[in-house]
Amino acid sequence: MTTTPRTARHILRDREASLFLSAVLVSGFGSSAMALAAGVWMKELTASDSLAALATAALWAAVPAGPWLGALADRFRRGPLLVRTNLAAAALLLLLAATASPDRLWLFLTVLVLYGVCGVVHDAAETALVATAVDARLLGGFNGLRLTANESMKLLAPLAGAALFTWYGGRAVALLDALTFLSAAGLYALLRAPEPARPPLPRRRPRGPLLPPAPALRALVAAGACTMLLAGINGASVYAVVDAGLGRAPGWAGVLYAVQGAGSVATGLAAGRLLRRLGERGFAAGGVVLFGLGVAARALPDDAAVLTGSLLIGAGLPCVLIAALTAVQRETPADRLGVTAGRVHTLLYTPNAVALLAGAGLVAVADHRVLLAVTGAAALVCAAGLAFGGRGEGVRRPPGRPEASVPGARTRPFGRSRELPRG
Fold first, then answer.
1. Whose CA is closest to 377, among 224, 225, 234?
2. What is the DSSP track for 131-144?
3. Class of residue 180 by CB neighbours under 10 A (exposed 0-12, middle 13-18, buried 19+)
4. What CA–CA distance (Å, rounded) separates 406 from 420?
5. Are the C-beta atoms of 287 and 320 separated by less than 8 Å?
6. Using 50, 70 and 90 to split pLDDT, how confident is the model at 420?
7. Segment 3-54, tens digit of pLDDT
8. How many Å from the N-terminal Cα to the C-terminal Cα in the chain?
9. For residue 322, how many C-alpha atoms fall within 13 Å in the half-sphere facing its CB?
10. What sign for the dihedral angle of Cα 139, 145, 148, 149?
11. C-beta separation of 127 from 193 below 8 A
């Protein structure tokens, strides 16, 4: 099954899939707008650049706790958990709109941290529920469409959020975000996806390996973490590229982000087809190659080269994330999907946050062209390791699991479909 327009129509005709994508669009618009507004709002309240950066960092503070927060998706029914998480996020934003002031900065930051906690729980529960709501053979294509929806909102929402903030202030953005979460809660409440039976709550939290023992799955997650680490260094250098490299105003970075987003949208639409043809390892490795070439192209002092590099980065970076997420959804036992998704999100996104901080220091002491060239070369080494390490190695399925299904998942396809090949 490929993610062609015809296939996309088959997926969108399905009630559960269309509800999921609608919720992603609605909540993604509001959260993308708020991600931009948080730092700007703090800057307006305090006139402090460091506190503005702290407000943005507060949104990511809960990411390292992903394994523990993700376990909630294995202890409670995932559909109702998604509803409650969205309602909680809406309530926090209403509180923020009502109380934000320079003399209550501790409350402002606390609300942002709790808002981030809701996001981590939401991502784990949604990842786990998708695996039982969507046919296992179509997970790659569906994840590509979900990424397309997210990236589309990242292109539109920051502009809308900036305009709304300029006209009406941060409270208006918080109220808009709260409204989107309330709408998403309503959409999740309409889902009728089957869920696995919940095991009895143990007296002590069980311990186990960080990831399932399948070597191919571990390789995909490791490659994703490496790529996101390099992406953080690339992201930290974007203003040096715009200023020192191209001699343009800082606002030109918005053009680079838009071109990168367009590349991600294109990859999301083609993900199902490419996964079928290349397999998970090949799809991920090819994406890392595109990412590495794009990063290296940004070192050149030429507008066309930098724009092309941004397009390649946008097209390549999502590949390893889609491949890793799809493998986790298909190969993890249904009653462990929540905690595994939380662990994978932590492993993938924590390196990016760390590298953004480290990259800011590196850009201050090193030539950005050298930094980007080394980063691009490191990405190519990562791609080679993924492509050629453990060749012929498949993802080992849990004992007793049918090849094309997930426990508790639907076995009815959205249309005519074939099993995705193993990389």
1. 234
2. HHHS-GGGHHHHHH
3. buried
4. 14
5. yes
6. very low
7. 444 455 666 666 777 788 888 888 878 777 777 677 778 878 887 766 776 7
8. 16
9. 38
10. negative
11. no
Burial class (CB in 10 A: 0-12, 13-18, 19+), 43: middle
Tokens of 173: 């953005």
Instruction: Name, of 77-81, 108-112, 376-380, the range with top average pLDDT.
Output: 376-380
Q: What is the mean pLDDT of the chain?
A: 78
Q: How far apart are CA 136 and CA 326, in angstroms?
A: 9
Lookup: tokens for 212:
């399932």
DSSP of 341-374:
HHHHHHHHHHHHHHHHHHHHHHHHHS-HHHHHHH
Cα 222–chain centre separation: 16
**Cα dihedral 331, 336, 340, 341 sign:** positive
Rg of the chain over Cα atoms, rounded to whole angstroms, equals: 21
- pLDDT tens across 199-232, in order? 444 444 445 555 655 777 888 999 999 999 999 8
Confidence of residue 313 (pLDDT cuts 50, 70, 90): very high
- Residue 222 vs residues 139, 312, 320: alpha-carbon distances, Å: 21, 21, 10
Q: Model confidence over 264-275: pLDDT tens digits? A: 888 888 887 888
The tokens for 110 are: 């606390």
User: How many Å apart are CA 316 and CA 292, to the nearest integer?
Assistant: 8
Distance from C-alpha of 29 to C-alpha of 17, rounded to nearest angstrom: 18
**Cβ neighbour number for residue 123 with a 10 Å cutoff:** 21
- What is the phi/psi pair of residue 404, to 5°? -110, 25
Structure token digits, residue 113:
């941290």
**147 near 314, Cβ under 8 Å?**
no
User: Do 308 and 297 contact (CB within 8 A), yes or no?
Assistant: yes
Region of poorest pLDDT, from 117-126, 362-371, 400-409: 400-409
